[in-house]
Amino acid sequence: MHFSTRRITAHTTYPFHIARPGASVDGSVVRRIVVSVEHDGIVGMGEAAPSPYYNQSLEAVEDVVSQLATKPALVGDDPFLIRAIVDRLLEQFGQHRSAIAAIDAALHDWVGRKLGQPVWRMLGLDPSVTKPTSMTIGIGSPDEMTERILAASAFRSLKIKVGSDHDAETLSLVGRHAPHARVRADANAGWDPGQALDRINALREFPIDLIEQPIPAGRSDELERLHESSPLPIFADEDCVVPEDILELAGKVTGVNIKLAKCGGICEAVRMIHLARAHGLQVMLGCMAETSLGVAAAMQIASMADVVDLDGHLLLADDPFSGLVLDGDRVLPSDRPGLGVVEVMR
Ligand SMILES: [Mg+2]
User: Which listed residue, 6, 146, 169, 187, has the most CB atoms within 10 A of its CB?
Assistant: First the structure.
């Protein structure tokens, strides 16, 4: 098995502002790495979307993949042994889960191509039951946000980043320009725990379905108190990275946002979904600002999620890959083998 990397760049349709310093999406430029595995004349591909927030970087992804050539026992020579390979990689490179996610995706793509079947079929899943995705409306001026809300008129659910002093104005714009839309409000760990309940209560007049990560990560007891008193469901995102986090969050939130780039790929995400269900947590499946290649990996298991937030590729003006289907406001995987994604020739 031969693994290789190459960097790719894409651009978001609208500038993307995230409150956190060091975010991997800066303005409108999205930098990602395609990890390829070549074996037996077949090539599988996966995308790495490292996030500095989780101490991930493009350089670290390249470093991990380059080490596979010098440590052949880590991956072996049978791409079908995905679970065993991923377990060894987690042991060796547990801090670099976006790299492992890309390797996991490339192996799934390879096996699907080898068998001539889409990955969701290999996993025994039925994409026809996949929930609609929400569409992210990035923060901008009122005119910019109005344009984005109107452009998202096909989506019943909008993801709004909250945490500024303008939240009520922003949500009023949704009410005015998308009166039938429901809202998922993402605070990205931005609220002071002492003020979070007041912040949530101040938004009660708006059609909000859930609040994502209202307070900084690592304060699960405060999250639990907020969950107990909040009139709205609370979902953990920044607090929910790896399977062990599910155990800490059990009973303290309504649900968890699982992302392949955080946890290490399809194998780990499936493990987390089962863990979350066993602990009575709802499952949201999310993504980073990823191309169709990265979102396609998550899309294979999206039918397992209660809440789907897989719009990364829809935010791009020049997605370098194609293959996902957009049916109204539902994103679906294709019927093609593997991840079902092909590179767009420009
Ligand atoms: Mg979030």
Answer: 187
Mean pLDDT of the chain, nearest integer? 95
Q: Minimal CA–CA distance to 211: which of 180, 172, 241, 171? A: 171
Ion ligand 1: residue ranges with CB closer than 5 A = 186, 212, 237
Whole-number pLDDT of residue 18: 59
| Cα–ligand 1 centroid distance for 237 (angstroms) | 5
Q: How many CB atoms lie within 10 A of CB 262?
A: 27
Residue 23 has pLDDT above 60, yes or no: no
Q: In whole angstroms, give the CA distance from residue 197 to residue 235.
A: 14
Q: Residue 259 Cα, ligand 1 centroid: separation in angstroms?
A: 10
Considering 105, 120, 135, which residue would you say is the last residue of a domain?
120
Residues 145 and 238 in one domain: yes
Q: Ligand 1 centre and the CA of 326: distance in Å?
A: 22
Element (H, E) at 89: helix 82-93
> How many angstroms is it from 9 CA to the middle of ligand 1?
22
Boundary-marking domain end, from 93, 120, 147: 120
CA of 161 to the centre of ligand 1 (A): 8
Q: In which residue are the tokens 């909250």 written?
A: 162
